[in-house]
Amino acid sequence: MMDIVKLIVIAGISYLVGAIPTAFIFGKFLKGIDIRQHGSGNVGATNAFRVLGKGWGITVLILDIVKGIVPVVCVAGLIFPDVIGRITASLAAVSGHNWTCFLNFKGGKGIATTLGVMIGLTVTIPEVRWPVALCVLAWTACFVATAYVSVSSLIAAVALPIAMVTFSAPTPVVLLSILFCVFVVFRHKPNIHRFLNGQEPKVPLPWNKAKE
Which long-range contacts (CB under 8 A, 24 or more apart) does 41-49 make? Predict the structure, then answer.
């Protein structure tokens, strides 16, 4: 019974940490705007780059990653430092970012926060380290080659459960990675439609000056 109470507490705190709408807050304080009404309308780091600029976009990205690390390493680590406790924190934090209670349960796409919880899991679960590293490498390679953040995120998300199985990660972590993959695909449905119609914006990289 006590373990259930601990998991509920972890889930609640982790959700609230993940639910902090970083890009929205920065948009309000820096420019007095609702970032949901600018750029892609998404409350995430990529749209913060477009609307607030590179510097603040990087800041939002880092904070969104931290929103994933803190629940797994600190919240679960203090209350229930077990695989199930950390999985609970991971799922709650990403759910908070994707469906934040502070913005009528409409949040970001969860890529940065998912990376954060995966980084957090590497602290205590050695089998997770290589899969996470390979998925980061896959995202980076795809982004450099295509300049599509969305496509890179989808490829990394699909690769995550495959890598987890390949490196024999614990079953709860494999199941979590499958669920995160589903989250990412579901949250990127508009991007998929735009990409298929040739309308998905690229990031203007030095070697790829395609317009957004």
Answer: 42/108, 42/109, 43/100, 43/103, 43/106, 43/107, 43/108, 44/107, 44/108, 44/109, 44/111, 44/112, 45/108, 45/111, 45/112, 46/149, 46/203, 47/23, 48/22, 48/23, 49/203
pLDDT band at 208 (very low <50, low <70, confident <90, very high): low
Say how many C-beta atoms besides its own lie within 10 A of residue 105's C-beta.
Answer: 12
- List the helix and strand counts (H, then E) for the chain: 11, 0
Phi-psi group of 75: left, alpha or beta (phi > 0 → left; psi -120 to 50 → alpha; rest → beta): alpha
Q: Are the C-beta atoms of 44 and 108 separated by less than 8 Å? A: yes
Report the distance separating Cα 98 and Cα 119, nearest Å: 18
Kindly list the distances between the CA atom of residue 73 and the CA atoms of 30, 54, 125, 209, in Å, as whole numbers in the listed order: 30, 28, 11, 39
Q: Is the pTM of this model over 0.85?
A: yes
Q: Which of 88, 46, 42, 94 is CA-nearest to residue 68?
A: 94
- The number of residues making up the chain comes to 212
Residue 59 CB neighbour total at 10 angstroms: 18
Residues 6+ positions from 198 with CB-CB distance below 8 Å: none
Which residue, among 118, 64, 61, 126, has the nearest Cα to 91 in the 3D structure?
118
Confidence of residue 2 (pLDDT cuts 50, 70, 90): confident
Quick check: 119 and 129 in contact, CB under 8 A? Answer: no
